[in-house]
Amino acid sequence: MISHASCRYAMLVCYLPPLPPHPFAGKSTPLSRLQLDRRLALLEPEDARDLATLEEIVHWEHIPLASTDENLALRARDALTRLRTPALREMLIWRLELRTLVGALRRRRLGLSAPTVKETWGWGGCLDSVRRHWERSDFNLGHRYPWLAVAERHLMQGEHTALENLLFTTVWEHYVRLAWKHHFDFEAVVLYVLRWHLLDRLTRYAPAAASQRFGELLAQGLGGQDRLFTAPSP
Predict the structure, then answer these.
(1) How do the domains of the chain map onto residue ranges?
(2) C-alpha count within 13 angstroms, C-beta hemisphere, residue 46
(3) Phi (first) and psi of residue 177, to 5 degrees
(4) Between residues 59 and 195, which one has the greater pLDDT?
């Protein structure tokens, strides 16, 4: 028997205008955040809370500027305990692992040593390989994260815009692959919102300013050695 929530979510997905095939294909989002939020009012209260929990960690504007890597790791752990479905937890863990790997590249670029076992830094199953294979360009994880070697090359060559574009594309394509498995359920709505946010960031981005800002972060040590994981990236 089809539940009332399932019917409502199928209707909600149909109300959402299509997103472009890739993040650089559009000059604006297909609807404003206000319009999106009006549609999201159809969410069940507990699902709305889960979406808010996910966005609190995934979207940089929700993270206080004074946050350290340890702060974010603690917030992420709390969020994972509050998310009710494995699918949402996996979405969050994947994004946290991407940030961990980018943070590790930045840390190594600054000439810092690998994080210690006791250090609260980063997230996910990649941490052990990062520590043990610190000197390898891809931390011995290229088979799992083929974008990693390309990201390292962009970072070493100072190609900040290319690195940002690579990361945006990597995240977008990951969400697209997940969306193939979800069509008219809550997870489909979440994946739409996450891609909408990426598109919103890109369409409001000034590439030259972004590149300059990214370079400044590197030159300044990204605001301190305790902010390599929390320094903004997609």
Answers:
(1) 4-227
(2) 6
(3) -60, -40
(4) 195
